[in-house]
């Protein structure tokens, strides 16, 4: 920076009061004294202020402007904040409900329906097999033994002689016969000790026959009922 | 306790404290008004421009997009608005011509203008020396006069003046130097009969 500008800068922006500025160059020193004199005269110039009424009007304007611009914004801003809060709360509630349903509701229902489907299919298969087996066994007993009695602890089914056995074969369209057959199946299932889902069916002739109340009995030991 | 400018601004902007804003205006009134007064040389116009300056300030503070963001530089921001208001006025009166920043020399701009500073100077009831000085200040070139006003009336640093007037610090310092030297020369010429010859031979025409 030029030496003359440095003098001016130090004259105005030095924080400490300076003594006479000297640079070694007489012309520069002379200019420094001139600048200092003019600055001193300018510093003695009284400050000027605006009219007090101007300050009052500015203050009133500031107050009015703030009320006009800011006050109407507040309800809008508060309403916006309130709406955002409500949306956020609803979102959280929806998320909680959705997670809850997913964890407990929908999963359980799916499991139950799935297990129900499995049980139903297995039961249908079992019923079908059991129905075939029962029918074939009945026919076989009817043709071979001619007559037999399928005794039960609670219910006893008399197997009619061969001629009558054909007539006693239930007609599956008859509800009464269907109920009767169902009872027979239930009785057979109850009397089957180890008939579980995972085991194959045990033919009736393989079941123990020593008891008077379980399994097949010899036709010679038990006279046919009339 | 002397609240800082930023505290007063916050009090007004956030809670509408008009007294805080009034305190802010009064604190810097001499710096702003002194500059405006020196620029327009008319107290009535200076009052109007002072109010116009703060109208713009208030609107800028109210506008969220253009709010005050120069933390710690409130007066610089206000001075920029005041300068724009003054230049707008001078341009509207067609009394201000755009002069290149490098064009420090040439015909004195104020020689082409009618002298309307008498009434303002009379209102101020200044001493003879000060009166003479103000007349001489009015005859300075616009750039020199503006730097002188910003430095003496508004108490801005040369760096702040350079930022405000979009020039380098050296340019601002150079303008100030020639403003002082020309002022001295004009005052001596005005009192030529009393003081005799010039004490120093310096260039005054830049």
Description:
The complex is a heterodimer of chains A (226) and B (206). Chain A is 64% helix and 3% strand. Chain A has helices at residues 3-13, 26-43, 52-70, 73-144, 162-168, 175-191, and strands spanning 148-150, 157-159. In chain A, helix 1 (3-13) runs parallel beside helix 2 and helix 4 (73-144) packs antiparallel against helix 5. Chain A starts with a helix and ends in a 35-residue tail after the last helix. The model of chain A is unreliable at 144-160 (pLDDT under 50). Chain B contains eleven helices and no strands. Chain B has helices spanning 5-15, 18-27, 29-40, 43-62, 74-92, 118-124, 128-138, 142-152, 158-164, 169-190, 192-195. Chain B has 206 residues and is an all-alpha fold. Classes of the chains: A mainly alpha (226), B mainly alpha (206). Chain A binds chain B through residues 1-2, 4-5, 8-9, 12-13, 30-31, 34-35, 37-39, 41-51, 54-55, 57-63, 65-67, 69-70, and chain B through 12, 16, 18-19, 21-22, 25-26, 29-30, 33-34, 37, 43, 46-47, 50-51, 54-55, 58-59, 62, 124, 126, 129-130, 133-134, 148, 151-153, 157-158, 170, 173-174, 176-177, 180-181, 183-184, 199-200, 202.
Query: In sequence order, what are the helices and strands of chain A, one letter per element?
Result: HHHHEEHH
Proportion of strand residues of chain B: under 5%
Strand count, sense and barrel status of the largest sheet of chain B are:
none
Structural class of chain A: mainly alpha
Helix/strand structural class of chain B:
mainly alpha
- Average per-residue pLDDT of chain A, rounded, comes to 70
Give the integer mean of the pLDDT values of chain B.
Answer: 78
Overall, the morphology of chain B is: elongated
Distance between the termini of chain A: 140 Å
Number of helices of chain B: 11
* Unreliable spans of chain A: 144-160
Order of helices and strands of chain B: HHHHHHHHHHH
Count of DSSP H/I helices of chain A: 6
Low-confidence stretches of chain B: 98-116, 195-206
Sheet-strand content of chain A, in percent, reads: under 5%
Give the distance, in angstroms, between the N- and C-terminal Cα atoms of chain B. Answer: 46 Å
For the largest beta-sheet of chain A, the strand count, sense and barrel status come to:
2 strands, antiparallel
Q: Strand tally of chain A, please?
A: 2
Q: Which strand order do you get reading across the main beta sheet of chain A? A: 1-2
What would you report as the Rg of chain A, rounded to the nearest angstrom?
56 Å
- Structural Rg of chain B: 18 Å
């Amino acid at each position: 920076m030029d030496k003359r500008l440095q003098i001016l800068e130090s004259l105005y922006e030095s924080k400490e009061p300076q003594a006479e500025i000297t640079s070694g160059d007489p012309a520069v020193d002379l200019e420094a004294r001139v600048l200092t004199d003019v600055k001193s005269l300018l510093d003695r110039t009284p400050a000027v202020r605006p009219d007090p009424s101007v300050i009052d009007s500015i203050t009133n304007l500031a107050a009015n402007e703030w009320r006009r611009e800011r006050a109407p914004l507040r309800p809008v801003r508060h309403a916006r904040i309130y709406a955002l809060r409500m949306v956020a709360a609803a979102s959280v509630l929806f998320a909680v409900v959705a997670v809850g349903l997913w964890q407990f509701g929908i999963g359980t229902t799916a499991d139950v329906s799935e297990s129900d489907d499995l049980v139903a299919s297995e039961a249908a298969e079992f019923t079908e097999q059991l129905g075939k087996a029962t029918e074939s066994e009945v026919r076989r007993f009817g043709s071979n033994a001619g007559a037999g009695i399928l005794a039960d602890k609670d219910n006893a089914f008399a197997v009619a002689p061969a001629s009558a056995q054909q007539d006693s074969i239930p007609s599956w369209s008859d509800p009464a016969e269907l109920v009767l057959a169902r009872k027979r199946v239930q009785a057979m299932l109850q009397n089957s000790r180890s008939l579980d889902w995972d085991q194959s069916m045990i033919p009736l002739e393989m079941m123990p026959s020593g008891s008077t109340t379980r399994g097949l009995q010899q036709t010679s030991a038990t006279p046919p009922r009339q | 306790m002397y609240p800082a400018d930023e505290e007063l601004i916050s009090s007004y902007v956030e809670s509408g404290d008009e007294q805080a804003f009034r305190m802010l205006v009064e604190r810097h009134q001499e710096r702003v008004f002194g500059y405006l007064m020196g620029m327009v040389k008319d107290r009535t116009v200076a009052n109007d421009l002072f109010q116009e300056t703060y109208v713009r300030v208030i609107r800028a503070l109210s506008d969220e997009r253009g709010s005050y963001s120069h933390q710690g530089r409130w007066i610089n921001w206000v001075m920029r608005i005041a300068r724009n208001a003054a230049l707008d006025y001078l341009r509207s009166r067609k009394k201000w011509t755009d002069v290149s920043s490098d064009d420090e020399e040439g015909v004195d701009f104020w020689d082409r203008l009618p002298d309307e500073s008498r009434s303002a100077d009379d209102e101020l009831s200044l001493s003879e020396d000060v009166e003479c000085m103000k007349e001489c200040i009015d005859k300075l070139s616009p750039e020199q006069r503006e730097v002188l006003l910003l430095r003496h009336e508004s108490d801005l640093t040369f760096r702040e003046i350079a930022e405000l007037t979009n020039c380098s610090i050296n340019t601002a310092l150079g303008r100030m130097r020639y403003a002082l030297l020309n002022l001295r020369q004009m005052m001596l010429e005005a009192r030529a009969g009393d003081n005799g010859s010039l004490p120093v031979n310096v260039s005054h025409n830049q």
